[in-house]
Design brief:
There is one protein chain. The chain has 274 residues and is mainly alpha-helical. It has one domain: MetI-like (MetI-like fold, Orthogonal Bundle). It is built from 10 helices and no strands. The longest helix is centred in the N-terminal third of the chain and has 37 residues. Keywords: Cell membrane, Membrane, Transmembrane, Transmembrane helix, Transport. One of its GO terms (cellular component) is plasma membrane.
């Protein structure tokens, strides 16, 4: 089997697994065998069994149903943060690199100011000021996550903006907006796409960390990181309440990480980099 076919099979496999995560994200609550919000004080802290596959929590709620439902909060926030940061960062970097001058200096100073703070500490601070909630946690991560895209896109635009095809487009009378959309972004898009794919697992870990600290999801919304925080109170007597949400995070991060690696390897092979 040649290398190209191996890369395609690997990419298809992880795309299939990611599609499974998306299906759970979209339809997890509908697939739940029990009401994920229903308290049953007669079945508190039950271990995994035939009726409750993943056991129950400290309020007697079905942990399997809450894992399925919580995928929407955890995964949707991850994809939304990566999408927004990629768009905002790329826009800022392209504008700074293409136009230069005062606009470039302003964006560069803004980057330096934000980078002077440790990223995770700043995210916690922003989330703490805005208050608990998945949207506020996403805003906190967006506030720091756009920087790598801005720096990368700016450096690439500086390299290509004086290329012959850009000069030819200017001589043909094309305006700056047309040149950016039709010539600049298509030439840097593949690198930024790979960067976004590789950012997925790290972003999910950051969202789960904020949730674990109580800065993301609000009760009674199930969210994997917050479910781990709730489960740690009974870690010695009911360890499944922490280990199962942690396992869901771990499996999702591994799938997203391998998907990013597979996309990167495949695109590098297509472009002849490897």
């Amino acid at each position: 089997m040649d290398r190209k076919k191996k890369l395609r099979i690997r990419l298809a496999w992880y795309l299939l697994l990611t599609a499974g995560l998306l299906i759970i994200m979209l339809f997890g609550e509908q697939l739940s065998p029990h009401d994920p919000y229903e308290n049953n004080l007669l079945k508190i802290d039950q271990p995994p069994g035939a009726e409750y596959w993943f056991g129950t929590d400290q309020l007697g709620r079905c942990l399997f149903s809450r894992i399925l439902t919580g995928a929407r909060s955890s995964l949707s926030a991850t994809f939304a943060v990566v999408l927004v940061t990629a768009v905002l960062g790329t826009a800022a970097g392209v504008i700074a690199g293409y136009y230069g001058g005062p606009v470039d200096r302003l964006i560069q100073k803004l980057l330096l100011i934000i980078q002077s703070f440790p990223g995770q500490v700043m995210a916690i601070a922003v989330a703490g000021v805005l208050g608990a909630g998945v949207k506020n946690a996403a805003i906190a991560l967006v506030s720091i996550g756009w920087i790598p895209y801005a720096r990368m896109s700016r450096s690439m635009v500086l390299k290509i903006k004086e290329s012959n095809y850009i000069k030819a487009a200017r001589l043909c009378g094309c305006n700056s907006g047309y040149i950016i959309l039709r010539h600049v972004i298509p030439n840097i898009g593949s690198v930024l796409f790979v960067t976004a794919m590789l950012a997925l697992p790290g972003t999910m870990m950051e969202i789960s960390s904020l949730s674990f600290l109580g800065l993301s999801a609000k009760l009674p919304t199930p969210e994997w990181g917050y479910m781990m925080n709730e489960g740690r109170k009974v870690l010695m007597t009911a360890p499944w309440q922490t280990l199962i949400p942690g396992g869901a995070i771990l499996i999702s991060v591994i799938i997203l990480n391998r998907l990013g690696d597979s996309v990167q390897e495949y695109l590098e092979y297509r472009t002849g980099s490897i």
